[in-house]
Amino acid sequence: MPFADLQEADAFLAAHPDVHAIELFIIDPCGVPRGKLLRREELRAVYQSGRPLPSSILGLTIRGEDVDATGLVWEVADADCWAFPLPGSLQLQSWRAQPTAQLQVSMHPEQGLPASVADPRHVLARQIERLQADGYQPVMAAELEFYLLDRERDAEGRPQPARQSNGLRPQAPQVYGVLELEQLAPFLDDLYAACAAQGLPARTAISEYAPGQVEITLEHRADALQAMDEAVRYKRLVRGVAHKHGYQACFMAKPFGELAGSGLHLHVSLADESGNNLFASEEATGTPLLRQAIGGLLETLEDGLAVFCPNANSFRRFQANSYAPLAKSWGVNNRTVSLRVPGGPAASRHIEHRICGADANPYLAAALLLAGIHHGLRARLDPGAPIEGNGYAQAREVLPTDWLTALRTLERSEWAREALGADFHRVFLAIKQEEYRQFMGEVGEQDWRWYLGHA
């Protein structure tokens, strides 16, 4: 895994003499950025010899609590593990009140042990290398939906959509509404400016299918690892810019029961060594290779569901007629299926993977997506006929809609253990099983509302 050269740090420091704080972060298995705030004088040393981080930093629940069963806490004495900078990740955080930079790091494969086995970026890098060894170059892009919420709760203590620049809260979906985008212009202008400053390829924005819900697409990248690096940095940026404007950016899969969920749609194709799209075809269903890839994704979908949908809330998104998937299905130019082949010119033929909630870790989701594709290519799997028309009404193999079933399937899956790596598979399950125990042990408002006077 290539790390950044010291010249990058020297050039940045020379260009930005007013920057005195650098946010150093690594992405943990839950997709949460964790790290430290460094001073300017510490930056060069990170490039020269890495930065020690505790092994437990990659063995935490989404609430930031140690999970001893990961083997990354007391068993290894919470040892220091060395992380190094990723090329191109040293960028300004233009939304901060004081000039501040950010730097993404990843565990060194050897010096980062024992924590390096739990670094999700390594999991994706391995899958990319496996495809490349067979002559395939994955091309990917991420499409993330999110809600803009007010930092103030409503009268009942619940989250609510943020006020727009006209002072009003959106009440209706107004999907594709241009007026809604206009009312968010101050936020969107800052967001696009921040993306440009960091080199993130933010493209089309739309008002999504719920009040206060927005989607912005990121450009396809010939380097799938770069595409997912950009996806995790984009999420960090959106949260920062939203905070600057008095909002909270919410990437929960289903923050409101009665409104649309938020997804992470992953777009993927395979190129040859010359950059030619191996899925390209005048046929809407693509090449035989594309269909084999879909066959592999369908066959492995349930095994990876706990990664694509990693939290209890993730499964609330699976509802019919909600623009979220419900079944193991594929189709052409069809938003009612899980795996969609978008329309468009032959050269752009690709797969849109619609399973993940916006709460999924992009590195892990992309890793299992690519592993599923690779499985389909090697086994030459046939996905069957594509769904035509309403996929919700034709659902044959409905996806599990509960967290525990997905976790148990992941635990039993030899395919997932091999795709993630045995050590990461163990760590991820330990984290999510602890989260499940805590989640089910918490008594809250719904329990009281349902059972207090009736059970």
TrEMBL record:
Pfam families: Gln-synt_C (PF00120). It comes from the Bacteria. PROSITE patterns: GLNA_ATP, GS_CATALYTIC. GO terms for biological process: glutamine biosynthetic process; polyamine catabolic process. Residues 120-455 form the GS catalytic domain. SMART domains: Gln-synt_C. Keywords: Ligase, Magnesium. Its cofactor is Mg(2+). One of its GO terms (molecular function) is glutamine synthetase activity. Belongs to the glutamine synthetase family. This is Glutamine synthetase. It comes from Geopseudomonas sagittaria.
